[in-house]
Amino acid sequence: MSVFARLAQLAPRALSQSASLAYARRMEHRPEDSALMLRYRDGDVAAFETLYRRHKDPLFRYLLRMCRQPAAAEDVFQEVWGKIIRSRDNYRPTAKFTTFLYHVAHNCFIDYIRRNKRHADTTDIEPDTQPDGADCPETLVEKSLARRRLDDALRSLPDEQRDVFLLYEEAGLSLDDIALVTDCKRETVKSRLRYAVRKLRSALDESPEAS
Amino acid sequence: MTDRHMKQDDSGDPRVSAAYREMAGERTPEHLDHVILNAARSAAKPRRSKAIAWLRPVAWAATIGVCLAIVIEIALLPEQEPAGIVPVSEDTASPTETKRLEKTTPQAAEPPGAQAVRKPARGKSADMDGRADEAEALNSLRELRQSSEIVEETAPASTLRSAPATATALEFATERYCDESQTADPESWLECILELERQGLYDAARLERELLAEAFPPPELVR
Closest to A197 (Cβ–Cβ): which among B13, B43, B47? Predict the structure, then answer.
């Protein structure tokens, strides 16, 4: 067997090995949130930056939809991260970091509600209506209307149902974790989520003419 | 919606989830990123300066305490060598002596024994009562002197520095060694003084000399 033929035989195996190694390396480069928080506790600011960039957008959207006002959402967002930063010395990885983060966020939101009783009266959020370049004008209009209907339906949900839906969608928490965050029973969480999804689905199913 | 959600329960709806994902594209404002990351950085820094911040007031307090102690020590220094308390009754004391007595060590610096002795001496009681009191006082002060000598023998030098009250009591006690019969004439008084000096009670001897000089002015004094 010539050298070229042997190389041709070895090449796919080597390629697959290197690909799996690269994949494994990439997996190694994504440390656990708890480990990052512990590293930050020991003074590693870069670990906090990684943690922050990983969670900032879902958390911001969660607070934006809960507070309904961007300014209020920004305040609560800062408050949440401030509490996370201050609690780094006492942090113990007994639960998932996401659960811990959203528990803090949930409590901050409740505090915000208590401070601003009239928060439900006004709303400034505009749904993201950026058009996709590939769609035709009719599809774009339909999508835009669907988004608006969904947004309206989400805003019209009771706080508890919206909270559970957002924790499920944005934070990616399981029902058990949501129960931990909201201090409710798992069955209560499940029922709230079901109601919320049903209302949102019916809003999506509405024909444009009916709305 | 993730597979994890779908496997765990059927509460979600993929269509709703997808529609929500399309709708929710908001991102965190950049100014918030700066604020929070700066806060995180500054919170991670001052671990060492926290200890410094704690040490600084302690250092100040210690410095002030030491300064106060030095000032008090200096202020009290002249009071450690008083001229002595002469437990002479007001009837027999000369005017200059009475003035001197009034200017002597404050009450707080005196031992309780000395105060106990002085009180009857100040009262205008009968001669016999006065003598009995003086004898009693003399006994108590002798006891004090003996106890102070024991303390001098046993205690380290550093603790003796803070015993001015005992020294005053000693001086007070030695003045009584020359009784009235000895102080009647200058010669016997002088003998008494010399005896005191032989015993090593120089302070008492010095005081007796002063009293002798006051009682018998220099022309009469035979040195």
Answer: B13
